[in-house]
Design goal:
- InterPro entries: 4pyrrol_Mease (IPR000878), 4pyrrol_Methylase_sf (IPR035996).
- The protein is an alpha/beta fold.
- It is built from ten helices and eight strands.
- The chain folds into two domains: about 90 residues, 3-Layer(aba) Sandwich (Cobalt-precorrin-4 Transmethylase, domain 1), CATH 3.40.1010; about 120 residues, Methyltransferase, Cobalt-precorrin-4 Transmethylase, Domain 2, CATH 3.30.950.10.
- Strand 4, helix 7 and strand 5 form a beta-alpha-beta unit.
- The longest helix has 18 residues.
């Protein structure tokens, strides 16, 4: 969410019904805005400690939220920036452990960073297709990339470690990733660091550079950055027969039934 400006109506209702709101968001202004509108806000940023495994942090967050919900007479909420099931590890555990503890858990969709990046990049995935990976999972499993399809590598600023740190990046942090990407893309291929706005007075940030220069961008990379890798121009010819079929009335008659659609009725 950009501050509180992208709250959907159903999320607004859910937060208004909640006795307490646990918040995963780094900015004071967001906590203050939620507190002004909805009441008690509990910030969870203190769970992140230098050098602590992120998995331990997520376990602590889940424990706090599920315990509070189990003990409360009224609903409690966990508010995250973005979509609660896109890159928010605690959500699945809250659902699983909450249900095991006899707590009803309801997840409401939100606007993810991916939605915002479509706009920032002018990208329509229906026209281009899309690949998307969490960056450490990509490298851990050595998943293949298709250069003719755009790719998003999420949380690129955390590459190389699953421990939390607020320390600045060294250039060497991005060497393994650059080398892996160069298996599929030329060194001169332009890629972009993209960071969706998280506050209402911000705009999306896009920084473009050649893949070979990745290490030189180390100081610019934030944990919330996504790496956008646009497609290499594809020389593959389209299937001419299928393209003709797509616009053929005779082919449409072959793949549809003769029955007419029933007329709309209020009965």
């Amino acid at each position: 969410m950009v501050g509180c400006n992208q709250l959907t109506d159903e999320v607004d209702v859910a937060l208004d019904r909640s006795d307490r709101i646990f918040l995963l968001h780094p900015h004071d202004i967001v906590a203050e805005a939620l507190s002004d509108r909805f009441g008690a806000v509990v910030r969870l940023g203190s769970e992140y400690e230098e050098g602590r495994p992120r998995a331990e942090t997520y376990d602590s967050i889940v424990d706090r939220v599920v315990s509070a919900a189990a003990d409360a007479d009224s609903p409690v909420a966990l508010a995250t920036y973005g979509h609660p099931t896109v890159g928010v590890t605690p959500t699945d555990d809250i659902v699983r452990r909450g249900e095991a503890a006899g707590v009803d858990v309801d997840v409401r969709p939100g606007i993810s960073s991916l939605d915002a990046m479509y706009v920032d990049l002018g990208l329509n995935p229906f026209e281009t297709g899309l690949q998307m990976f969490e960056v450490n999972d990509l490298l851990l499993r050595e998943l293949p990339l298709t250069p003719s399809v755009p790719a998003f590598l999420f949380q690129v600023g955390t590459v190389g470690s699953r421990l939390y740190t607020a320390r600045p990046n060294a250039p060497e942090r991005f060497t393994r990733l650059r080398r892996y990407l160069e298996r599929f893309y030329p060194p001169t291929h332009e890629v972009s660091l993209v960071r969706a706005a998280t506050l209402p007075f911000e705009s999306g940030d896009v920084q473009t550079f050649e893949l070979s220069a990745f290490e030189s961008m180390a100081a610019e990379v934030h944990p919330s950055h996504t790496l956008y890798v646009p497609p290499v121009r594809s020389e593959a010819a389209p299937n001419e027969e299928y393209r003709d079929d797509l616009y053929s009335r005779a082919h449409l008659d072959e793949i549809t039934a003769d029955d007419e659609f029933p007329a709309d009725s209020d009965e």
